[in-house]
Amino acid sequence: MERLSNNYHVAMSTNGEPARPDGPPDSVAFLLAQLGAHATKLFAERVGELELTPAQAGLLRSVAGRPGRSQREVAAELGMPPSRFVPFADELEQRGLIERRKNPADRRLHALHLTDAGQSLLAGLREVGMAHEAQICADLSPGERGQLIGLLRRVADHQGLTPGVHPGYRSVRPDHAR
Hints:
- The chain is mostly helical.
- The chain has a single domain (27-176), classed as Arc Repressor Mutant, subunit A (Orthogonal Bundle).
- The protein is built from 6 helices and 4 strands; from the N terminus they run E-E-H-H-H-H-E-E-H-H.
- The protein has a two-stranded antiparallel sheet. Strands 3-4 form a two-stranded antiparallel ribbon.
- Strand 1 and strand 2 (9-10) form a beta hairpin.
- Helix 2 packs across helix 5.
- The longest helix has 21 residues, at 28-48.
- The radius of gyration is 20 Å and the shape is elongated.
């Protein structure tokens, strides 16, 4: 972006020329935002069929990936304050998808585990995830998909993002987890 007077910026196209004001934006940031919003909407629709929100799906995935961690550890990984995390996890526990067990090493802590019902739902969630990925990447060859993943991973790493954790958890409120 080129800086103009009065703090205005002009988007630059990929060849270094100013982007046409009457055409679509030709910037990585815009395309990532556009695709991210589109992919998020489609994913929410897909997991909605499993009666989950994307945030709940991510929590199930996190607990399954490393069972037995404390609520505080999972909340920290997701970037959620514990006060927001507890009611968020409560709903999944009430639905019989996760359970809290006393941590044998420290009985003050509750270790999170998926129940059998949670494991079963996670299997359906994996199928949804694979179908979602296939739809989003339908026009890419396997090599192009791998290249895109590598490039996006580098950008995410440079931005200091936690691998596998959506930054939206920081703003999840218990009343919006569903």
